[in-house]
Amino acid sequence: MRHVSRDAKGGVYSSNLHERWHNNIVLPDRIHNVEQEPAGYCGMMVPAEYPDQNPWPALYKARKLSMIEVFVYTTSNWTDPELHLPGSIVAFNEMSSKYKWLEMHTGNHLGAFYEQDRVDSQTQFLDYFLKDKHDNGMRDVPQSQLVVRPSQGEPFWRTEKAFPVPDATETELYFTSDEKLSTYTPSGQAKAYEYEGLKGRVTFTAEPVSSAL
């Protein structure tokens, strides 16, 4: 059985970023800004959460990431699949910038910006391109800095010359009838899973990666 649920954005659970943003940011601001007209954003975006619906195709045609040629230092979060992860990776790969760097962290996607080593990296980048401190070693910084979370032990940083990692190997994972993720093609009778859209969920688990990084 190889099954991908339409309600799960390609099989990966996502808890409705637009609704959360509207309820946590827009509505509280409206309380303090009584003259603001109701946006109705939540209702507008509920039927358009997926990349092939309503406004998204038009946005894809309008944006031309390949036209970006300025220097770029972009960060993303392995554990934030709703926005920062796919958006940052797509932008990094498609932009034409000669000088660009990608940082992939984990955990709280805001807190990482204020860790001292991350602040130092941002300062190094800004000093080089905005203050002309061309002797600060920025050009020697690896293009990709990736946090790796092993099954045991503390996360550590891995540096690469490009992203995707040149020697990376893609591995297909298959949904199984016992709610697992398998690297082997499942056999037997296919099974359907049902849940309430935008509220329910189906969770599939996989074994920790055992090979060395």
Uncertain runs: 1-13
| Order of helix and strand elements from N to C terminus | HHHEHEHEEEE
Measured as a percent range, the helix fraction is 25-40%
Order of strands, main sheet, comes to: 1-2-3-4
Structural class by secondary-structure content: alpha/beta
Q: Can you tell me the overall shape?
A: globular
Mean pLDDT: 77
What does this 3D model show about the protein?
The chain has about 210 residues and is α/β, with parallel strands linked by helices. The chain has a domain at about 15-60. It contains five helices and six strands, in the order αααβαβαββββ. Strands 1-2-3-4 form a four-stranded mixed sheet, with helices on one face. It has a two-stranded antiparallel sheet with strand order 5-6. Strand 2 (about 100-105), helix 5 (about 115-130) and strand 3 form a beta-alpha-beta unit. The chain starts with 16 loop residues before the first helix and ends in a 31-residue tail after the last strand.
Keywords:
single chain; 213 residues; alpha/beta; 4-stranded mixed sheet; two-stranded antiparallel ribbon; globular; disordered N terminus
In short:
The chain is α/β, with parallel strands linked by helices and 213 residues long.
Task: Describe the secondary structure blueprint for this structure.
Elements: H1 17-32, H2 41-45, H3 55-62, E1 72-77, H4 84-94, E2 100-105, H5 116-130, E3 144-148, E4 156-160, E5 174-175, E6 181-182
Parallel strand pairs: 1-2, 2-3
Antiparallel strand pairs: 3-4, 5-6
